[in-house]
Amino acid sequence: MITATLSAPVFTPEAEKRLQDFNTSWKMRLWMFRQLPAAWFMGIKIKSMTWQNAEITLPYGWRSQNPYRSIYFAAQCAAAEMSTGILATLACEGRGKISMLVSNIEVDFTKKATQLTTFRCEDGEKAFEIVQKAVETGKPQQLTMVSVGKQLSGEIVSVMKITWSFKHKP
After folding, report:
1. Is residue 150 part of a domain?
2. Is 18 part of a structural domain of the chain?
3. Model pLDDT for residues 95-143, shown as the tens digit of each residue
């Protein structure tokens, strides 16, 4: 599962366990209910996840729609943030105390979202690299991760660039 670009100490046993938990639907639903109740309420779910990428689904329905019969922008932002955030969380697992915070979001809405939308982020490797740099240098690091939202039809509805700040706390 791990390629030669990442050394063994970077992908910790804690990260391996967290990845298994993220891919176990009942554990993830329980975690979301306790930690992210708004995301749980909107019906956000992990479709698939590896250490390199994550796919999050957001259903179109009364819990996620706006008065204009499309998915509310904040619901899309929540799903996109989750697709980047779970990769960043995975990168921090077993690395000591690391604070992570969204410091910027840029969004392009390209089409009205009116059906199940999947948000995909493929920046997991970058997250592992930047967290490693934060641990090694002791200095805060930033990483902009991209999440693309596509409807079932394959049409892109939004592209979100979410900048995460990481700081290792010895």
Report:
1. yes
2. yes
3. 889 999 999 999 999 999 999 999 999 999 999 999 999 999 999 999 9
